[in-house]
Amino acid sequence: MNIRVKAFLFFLLCVAQAQSGFGKITLPSLVGDNMVLQQKAEVSIWGKAKAQTTVAVTPSWNNKKYTAQSSADGSWRLKVSTPAAGGPFTITLSDGESLVLNNILVGEVWVCSGQSNMSMPMIGYKNQPIKDSNAELLLANNPNIHLFSVRRAATRTTQEDCVGKWEVSSPKSARAFSAIGFEFGTILERSLHVPIGIIHSSWGGTPIEAWISEEGLKAFPHAKVIPPSDTTQVLPRNPASLYNGMIHPLLSYGIRGFLWYQGEANRNSYARYDSLMNVMITDWRARWGQGNSPFYYVQLAPYKYPENLNNSPYLREAQLRVMQQVPEVGMAVALDVGEENYIHPPNKSEISKRLAYLALAKTYGWEGLAHSGPVYEGMQVDGSKIQLTFSFAPNGLSTFGKELTDFEVAGDDRIFYPAQAEINAQGVVVSSPQVQNPVAARYAFKDWVVGSLYNVEGLPASSFRTDNWEK
């Protein structure tokens, strides 16, 4: 056989392989074996197939055939009606060739995102443990919980796909997964008795600006987005870079709501944090197109920051404002579970539990379940004392045996002094012998504190101040 014949045969083989590959249905990483679909919803299934051909999708829960016409580049998308929670099911796709997806569950799907405290896996970080992680992993063999981790990707332009795969919960898969995401999902599965899917997309040390779309950042001149023509390396702290690579690929996937744990990287620019977070929540909700999907987040935990600027209480204050400004959000306070010398609190179980209280009470309608700690409501000066009142404390307040500490009061000179504090029928009354005419009070308004004020349901109060004096 001469060289020309060999070359021609090789050409025919390449053409056949290319045609065969082009005809095969391909799917984004989120759509595959082991995925969990949001129950009682119209969810998207999408991918690529032969150009200008009919793609059929048939789920086993109703054996109904859904069809879509692929475009010139082979892209297609359709909506499928999901039943009440259940499974496992199969989904058969065909454009002439069949593809079967196995072990599909229908239940509740949540996206969790943020920086290192959301990234922190069940196994912990080097010399930084997760409390009771091994005991939690004893219960990780659960076919009703499926986990998806988005591989880190900071990109200059929006991406349509990400790298990752759905995994069934096991000690092996859970130990490398977000501790907050896994433990939240475990509580939901035990409480709701339905399949749970958790999609984890986070990156340590990143500011909130990186997680907001370019369009959302237009109102913030300080957040300069790198143009597509720029050839410099894209960094995870660059504005919009993580939205592009790690949030945008998720937008078509049907979900119930969001969990967010971030703030450390923005503590020195606290003044605009609530505005940024407000925009991010609004932007994500609009792009997912599911209305005001629930958005629950963790307030920054106390920590002794080495620069000692005492900025984190102002960041916590901004996070508290978001709870009061944005509909269908909730904040899990972590004022009592911080660590003086570790920025990553090991007690993720307590934080996850508080996020679950929010979801179960506010999203799933569980009556009788407290979901918020006391929130400062108002003050009344009575001589040398200030009476503080609180919402979310219908049955009153408690320290659960702790000393009531970290209150301060100030007069017109704006100098704060440690205050004596006492719980009474109206809330908390505070005073200091050094301030005869108090005008303002603060609670736990420092980088490092250990919270001591709770409602009787055991949920802690956020740090707060009654004044609005500049730092």
From TrEMBL:
<dbReference type="GO" id="GO:0005975">
    <property type="term" value="P:carbohydrate metabolic process"/>
</dbReference>
<dbReference type="InterPro" id="IPR013783">
    <property type="entry name" value="Ig-like_fold"/>
</dbReference>
<dbReference type="GO" id="GO:0001681">
    <property type="term" value="F:sialate O-acetylesterase activity"/>
</dbReference>
<dbReference type="Pfam" id="PF03629">
    <property type="entry name" value="SASA"/>
</dbReference>
<keyword id="KW-0378">Hydrolase</keyword>
<dbReference type="InterPro" id="IPR039329">
    <property type="entry name" value="SIAE"/>
</dbReference>
<keyword id="KW-0732">Signal</keyword>
<feature type="domain" description="Sialate O-acetylesterase">
    <location>
        <begin position="108"/>
        <end position="351"/>
    </location>
</feature>
<dbReference type="InterPro" id="IPR036514">
    <property type="entry name" value="SGNH_hydro_sf"/>
</dbReference>
<feature type="signal peptide">
    <location>
        <begin position="1"/>
        <end position="18"/>
    </location>
</feature>
<protein>
    <submittedName>
        <fullName>9-O-acetylesterase</fullName>
    </submittedName>
</protein>
<dbReference type="InterPro" id="IPR005181">
    <property type="entry name" value="SASA"/>
</dbReference>
